[in-house]
Design brief:
Blueprint: H1 11-17, E1 22-26, E2 29-32, E3 37-40, H2 43-46, H3 55-67, H4 80-92, E4 99-103, H5 106-123, E5 131-135, H6 144-149, E6 166-169, H7 175-184, E7 189-194, H8 210-220, E8 224-228, H9 243-246, E9 253-256, E10 268-272, H10 274-281, H11 297-312, H12 315-330, E11 339-343, E12 350-354, H13 360-369, E13 372-373, E14 376-377, E15 381-384, H14 392-406
Parallel strand pairs: 3-13, 5-6, 5-7, 7-8, 8-9
Antiparallel strand pairs: 1-2, 2-3, 4-10, 9-10, 11-12, 12-15, 14-15
Helix pairs in contact: 3-11, 4-11, 12-14, 13-14
Bound molecules: pyridoxal-5'-phosphate.
């Protein structure tokens, strides 16, 4: 019996079949404990935007840890690198002048946004605005708020009621939000949470016009629009730092993590539009919320080095290149009898949707035998979300691996 309990796992199966141990990574490749090389189709869990093995990030973290690893971000305390990172993020925020609240990861960011949305309305003298709305197939992490907001039923099974005042609506029709407003009243709704691209739920791209319409409905009805950009943030959307910038969404709150540090050190950040931050910055109000490791100096150093690399190497443009490369090169796989459709064409993201969802997990193992480390999301959607350093030749290698594995 192993001591390690893996996340999202049937541990009996892991005990029986053994773990897949990733011992090393370099660029778009990872290596197992025996030294066998695999093309990393998913950038880990959607986060290694700058690729594996970046000594520059390791060096920046080491230097920071030697100087001061972390102290505190509560009250008036912080570190120079944390301040500098907040300024830098505010400067690239979809809403200029946004405030930055640091967390330890995506689930923390979602929890923070859900609490802040309710607390904001409390500050505004409208404490009845409490209901938070999520969408079917959505994934917002695994804290209580995110699990309750999520739209993947199996992730909610077996806990009873998680967070009251949570509602789920259809994922692809903005009219569903209008119908909910009609039913329960905008005066009771605090916020609408929206992944610009549905990620872990199976990689579903937003229908044309959906995001703009949902945004407009929120604005018209005084409902906070929360863009969950844990996956789409920091370049994954292609050509822009954030999907919210690419689609002009001007979110009231934006949750991020993953690509902020490319996963080298855990860190998340919530971007808060000035209008929402205002009552808390006016003086006299404490927000009694925060995490020991929020704004961790070592993590902030990793984020700074990561952003340097993205800027210096033009990786936002590389993600845009991957948008069309993945779209073009994956298209022929749609003809395969075991493939239902390919979803692609927005950012460095795609899915090979299998006809039979039960083939997803076995296919992950077959892919490994063909030199690709992959992942099944949603209902048999093979996730493709490479690091932005994956070359077009490596995309060919990826498609060849998929073709052999499917065959
Ligand atoms: N939100 C979205 C859209 C995510 O995809 C994820 C993780 O995949 C999370 C939140 C939770 O992030 P974390 O696993 O870092 O807590």
């Amino acid at each position: 019996m192993n001591a390690l309990w893996h996340g999202f796992a049937d541990m009996g199966a892991v005990e029986r079949d053994g773990a897949f141990v990733v011992a090393r990574g370099e660029g778009a490749y990872v290596y197992d404990a025996e030294g066998t090389r695999y093309l990393d189709a998913t950038a880990g869990l959607w986060f290694t935007n700058v690729g594996h093995g970046r000594a520059e990030i390791a060096d920046a973290v080491a230097e920071q840890l030697r100087t001061v690893a972390h102290y505190s971000n509560f009250g008036d305390l912080t570190a120079p690198v944390t301040q500098a990172l907040a300024e830098r993020l505010s400067a690239i925020a979809p809403v200029p002048g946004s405030k930055i609240f640091f967390t330890s990861g995506g689930s923390d960011s979602v929890d923070t946004a859900a609490k802040l949305a309710r607390r904001y309305w409390h500050e505004m003298g409208r404490p009845d605005k409490k209901i938070v709305v999520g969408r079917r197939m959505a994934y917002h992490g695994m804290h209580y708020a995110g699990t309750a907001l999520g739209g993947i039923p199996v992730n909610r099974e077996g806990y009873g009621e998680l967070v009251p005042d949570t509602r789920t609506i259809e994922w692809d029709d903005a009219k569903a939000l209008l119908a909910l407003i009609e039913e329960i009243g905008a005066e009771n709704i605090a916020a609408f949470f929206c992944e610009p691209i549905i990620g872990a739920g199976g990689v579903y791209l937003p229908p044309d016009g959906y995001l703009a319409e949902a945004r407009r409905i929120c604005r018209d009805n005084d409902i906070l629009f929360v863009a969950d950009e844990v996956v789409t943030g920091f370049g994954r959307i292609g050509g822009s730092w954030f999907a919210s910038s690419r689609f002009g969404l001007e979110p009231d709150l934006m949750t991020t993590a993953k690509g902020l540090t490319s996963g080298y050190i855990p860190m998340g950040a919530v971007f808060i539009a000035p209008r929402i931050a205002e009552p808390f910055f006016a003086g006299g109000t404490w927000w009694r919320h925060g995490y020991t490791y929020g704004g961790h100096a070592g993590a902030a150093a990793a984020a700074m080095a990561n952003l340097d690399i993205i800027e210096r190497e033009g990786l936002l443009d590389e993600a845009e290149r991957l948008e069309s490369t993945l779209h073009d090169k994956l298209a022929p796989l749609a003809e395969h009898p075991r493939v239902a459709e390919i979803r692609s064409g927005l950012g460095a993201v795609a899915a090979v949707q299998l006809v039979d969802p039960s083939e997803g997990l076995p296919l992950v193992k077959t892919l490994r035998a063909h030199g690709v480390s992959g992942r099944a999301a949603g209902q048999g959607a093979m996730q493709i979300s490479p690091s932005f350093v994956m070359s077009d030749d490596q995309v060919d290698e990826l498609v060849a691996g998929f073709t052999r594995a499917l065959g």
